[in-house]
Amino acid sequence: MAQNFDMIVIGAGPGGYVAAIRGAQLGLKVCVIEREHLGGICLNWGCIPTKAMLRSAEVFHLMHRAKEFGLSADGINYDLPAVVKRSRGVAGQLSGGIGHLLKKNKCTVIMGDATITAKGKVSVKTEKGTEEVTAKNIVVATGARARELPGLEADGDLVWTYKAALDPVRMPKKLLVIGSGAIGIEFASFYNTLGADTTVVEVMDRVLPVEDAEISAFAKKQFVKQGMKIMEKAMVKQLDRGKGKVTAHIEVGGKVEKQEFDTVISAVGIVGNVEGLGLEEVGVKLDRTHVVTDEFCRTGVDGIYAIGDIAGAPWLAHKASHEGVMVADLIAGKPAHPVKPESIAGCTYCHPQVASVGYTEAKAKELGYDIKVGRFPFIGNGKAIALGEAEGMVKTIFDAKTGELLGAHMVGAEVTEMIQGYVIGRKLETTEEDLMETVFPHPTLSEMMHESVLDAYDRVIHM
């Protein structure tokens, strides 16, 4: 006999487990179905373990700069297996914490593969057999995986996706990274810092192509200064695999050149995990492996929702989590507000860090805004100089007519922490006047946020 619930959540990544916990808080009887590991890709093979590895690279980089800070350090080296072990330990700790949170909130967890067999009905293949569960509401939160292009498929040895890059079989000596989005550039930054001869190939006209062009250009200069080779408007057409080496055929400027590498990381986007779920059979529409939804994550089939990466861009864990809360509120009959993509911050944890929210300068102009733009460099900030992190900038974009904060873009130390100030500003519909009248603490990196706003209105003090 099938178990009956108020809400079934398929997938226990950031969106799924948050939806389940929020639903339980609202008094719903909740079932979570997960086929692999609680916490999903983010906690196990994405956001968290990559940040742990990048932290190790950051400390390693700082150790080499010890003399600048009046310190001495000899015999500086790294132990890659130990770096990876720490990263896996951090991921394991947080994944275990998700299990505790679900149990604390009395959510039923079933480990297995789920298929929606009919409206309100889900069949789960487990190690013990098949279980049937029913609920009026089903939330699909199965996430996504790395996209693999024909001829460039990963093999775990010479060609890696993010999973192999997080648990490497060796330290690359000569590394090719295909794709310069957040995933690609973070891995490039990590391995380059540890000494790999790193080349990044990007098909678009600039690295970090979703970021503001000025920020991308600044970041590129820093990457090149660190020894990376950046190839833009370039495409890897073919990979010839040999013993311990890969020959990449790279097309750039209409010509194909061959380069040898011992390791390739493919970071060319993601595809939604939609296979085997029975979505199309019950009437859910798909578009290029992603579920088509409205602003409230409704699929068009009554009682079926899709949240997180499977529901499309932006592919960010914090967006998925808030969609989970929104959907649980809807199901429980509470007021719910749609998540607005243009007010979600994007963060890239390379060195230097990159963070942004809202419209780029080009997008604001394209939308017809008359804009005011302010900039402030890290070199003008006392805290940045004291930290030894004087390379960076903060850029803000305002509607010249209303003073609305249209966008904010940053590159430099700790900008992934600072960006939230502007995110709150956009949520509260803050104007330039509000930001200019806010007192920012001194000495902090956040003062640059203030100065950038002042610069947009010709009132900057320290530049």
Automatic annotation (TrEMBL):
NAD(+) binds at residues 179-186, 202, 269. Its cofactor is FAD. Disulfide bonds join 42-47. Its EC number is 1.8.1.4. It is found in: Cytoplasm. GO terms for biological process: 2-oxoglutarate metabolic process. This is Dihydrolipoyl dehydrogenase. It comes from Octadecabacter ascidiaceicola. The gene is lpd.
